[in-house]
Amino acid sequence: MATILVTGGAGYIGAHTAKALAGAGHTPVVYDNLLKGHRAAVRWGPFEEGDLADAARLDAVFARWQPAAVVHFAALSEVAHSVADPLLFYDVNVANSLTLVRRALAHGVKAFVLSSTCSVYGDPERLPIDETTPCLPVNTYGRTKLMVETMLADAAAAYGLDAVALRYFNAAGASFEAEIGEDHDPETHLVPLVLMAAGRPERVIGVNGTDYATPDGSCVRDFVHVVDLASAHVAAIERLLAGRLAGFRAINLGTGRGSSVLEILAHAERVTGLPVRREIRPRRVGDPPLLVAEPAAAARLLDWRPRHSDPDTLITTAWRWMQHRGTAATAG
Q1: Known catalytic residue at 168
Q2: Where would you tag: which of 52, 196, 267, 325 has the fewest CB atoms within 10 A of its CB?
Q3: What is the pLDDT of residue 188?
Q4: Backbone CA torsion sign across 130, 133, 139, 142
Q5: Catalytic option among 121, 141, 168, 212
């Protein structure tokens, strides 16, 4: 069993992955500056507070724990923020990742898993999206993630780094024990926003377009349970350490099927027993009608299949997390 450095491990997917690593017998060492993450979410291994821009601090952490691998989550991810302040995203997502890769290699760490995104594809010309789909990101966030992927591919060729970029589609859900869940500020993701509006008529969910060429006219997205995403990171790390993956690989994490915005609203009302007020709005510029992954590579390379990513499980676990925190509305 291995010691794994988990950058951004106090965040949503990072904390779930730390839990999954610990459950598989590994020691996750969380490195996080807590600007976006939550100290209370670090529960399954040691915590080291620090910023990725601080090379000396990273050196001290690598020297102390001597990790066998890195799982890198620490990044900014809000698309609108990336457009408004692109240089910040280049600093945090690209420059800090360069510092991390340099320090990892300096300490002899050559197994690396990157938290990446389907945003690297932009508006794809064909569906479902597989790893051969051209990467043409349409916002700064997607461009910064693609830059880090390119950096890892070049480092793999030049220095013998073995790296996997896991390109997520839409993460959702919460741990089955309701210990950790989605807790962003501000919240921008559909499932928690819908649940925050359940039973609260003062909150409105905007449905941006109902005239797309989809079954019900609303946009369709590929939602993946965060517990499934965490298990993929464990699988990637274990295969890298066992020498079963070499060089650089980019792998999609999706279900191969989609749920529409209106379907998510209907599932939320059924799970919670509460109404969700919605408002039909014009289409948003740049919103593709359908984004669905082709997950065959993940099945082949990681022996990974999403087991908990049906809409009812996604919403039930997220709702249980909100109830556990006392932030959910109640009937009556």
Answers
A1: no
A2: 325
A3: 86
A4: positive
A5: 141
**Separation between Cα atoms, residue 134 and residue 122, nearest integer Å:** 9
pLDDT digits (tens, 9 = 90+) for 169-213: 999 999 999 999 998 888 889 999 999 999 999 999 999 999 999
In whole angstroms, how far apart are CA 104 and each of 27, 167, 301? Answer: 17, 22, 24
Closest Cα to residue 277, out of 227, 239, 230, 329? 329
Task: Give the tokens for residue 23.
Answer: 């459950």
The two three-digit tokens of residue 71, written as one number: 């799982």
Pairing of strands 69-72, 47-49: unpaired
CA distance 284 to 81: 16
* pTM for the whole structure: 0.95
Question: pLDDT tens digits for 39-76?
Answer: 999 999 999 999 999 999 999 999 999 999 999 999 99
Residue owning tokens 């649940």: 195
Please, what's the largest Cα pairwise distance for the chain?
Answer: 63
Here the tokens at position 265 are 């609203």
Give domain 3-171+225-253's CATH superfamily. Answer: NAD(P)-binding Rossmann-like Domain (3.40.50.720)
d(CA 259, CA 282): 20
